[in-house]
Amino acid sequence: MTNLLWPGDQRAGALMTDRALLTSMVAVESAWLAALADAGLAQVDQSDTALHHFVDARDCDMLAAAAEDGGNPVIALVALLRQRAAPGVAPWIHRGLTSQDVVDTGLMLALQDVVKQLKTQLAEQISDLSQLAVQHRGTPMVARTLTQHAAPTTFGAKAARWLDGVADAYRRLAALSIPAQFGGAVGTWSATVELATLRPDGTEPAAVAARLTQGAATTLGLDHRRPWHTTRTPITAAADALVGCSDCWGRIAADVLILTRPEIAELREPVSGQRGGSSSMPHKRNPVLSVLIRRAAITAPPLAATLHTAAALADDERPDGAWHAEWDTLRSLARRAVVAGSQCTELLAGLEVDAANMRRNLDAADVLGEQRVIAELAGRPPSPTFLGAVDHLIDASVRDAQRLLDGV
User: Fold this and answer.
1) Residues 255 and 273 in one domain
2) Can you spell out the DSSP letters for 381-393?
3) Which entry of 261, 278, 372, 403 is annotated as an active-site residue?
4) Is 142 helix (H, G, I), strand (E, B) or coil?
5) Fewer CB within 10 A of the terminal residue: the chain, N end or C end?
6) 187 near 143, Cβ under 8 Å?
7) Which residues belong to any copy of the Fumarate lyase N-terminal domain (predicted)?
8) Does residue 7 lie in a domain region?
9) Active-site residue flag, 30
10) 291-311 residue pLDDT tens
């Protein structure tokens, strides 16, 4: 995909593009057909259940245009698969499914790849931030509250707070359930149960349907869950986890933007080619990575709010517009998270720390007022160990983050 109005969109690559989503939806149809064949409910050889070779990227435009007729792309996709499949296979394709099953499960399958990419990014950031925190545990700087000089701290302590936020985001993603959706027309397995009544061995039809959904989910590598047609928790949980990523990156970017101001000059973004240049002011070097990360942090919460609103308006057994509002919203949120994650990874890996300017700014500020007041109460001079528990806090953050990556 390309997007002139979202600089850096290419960093998300093929994730959740039309082609990726088409591949995911065909994978859903194939997994379900294989489950039917395995249960003896479809007169199809397992070798004929792979449907991926019936469609390719050239079909995307046609399917996108045809989607308007039915309100979703699955109707035209099923017709295309049945048209291109062998006569003995075609009637069994999509049998027992509904469009929502394929769209929802296809989105979850594509989202799974996004989550894997984000976890990789976050793990790299945890490593870089741990290194920054330890390396600069003794690099003094002035802490600021409400934009004003407040008290002494170290850059290691600031990096440790960034680290805590990134670790929280990783933890949310790692705990995220990404389930398949197989419920049939109204979420009751109605068609699947009807198919199961054809079995000659008298197996309870509902038990057959349950095994089918479990088997198809396992084939796709997704979690198994009862139908969630109008219980949109998987969507909103994913949205919240994605926004959690953008939140922690936005917080880092906000600090970097402040500390790269020429009058402060305590940090610098990594240099890369012409990045940061201006069309009219050749002397400028703008902190573009941080600007674009902050852009994502500003726009992510409204996208998640749209998904929460859609969940709250998911009426009947298939919502009339609320469900449809989710698809591209989730795609935008997911791709933008990957882009911002990539930009933040690059930012942290090459962040330049000006320890001399940090020391200079601290020396020029009177930030020992709190210590003096407390010392006066005790009737003694201020303690030289004015940095308090910085080392303890840094070590705790780094230790907890490493334990998280180690799965402890």
Assistant:
1) yes
2) PPPS-TTTTHHHH
3) 278
4) strand
5) C
6) no
7) 74-297
8) no
9) no
10) 999 999 999 999 999 999 999
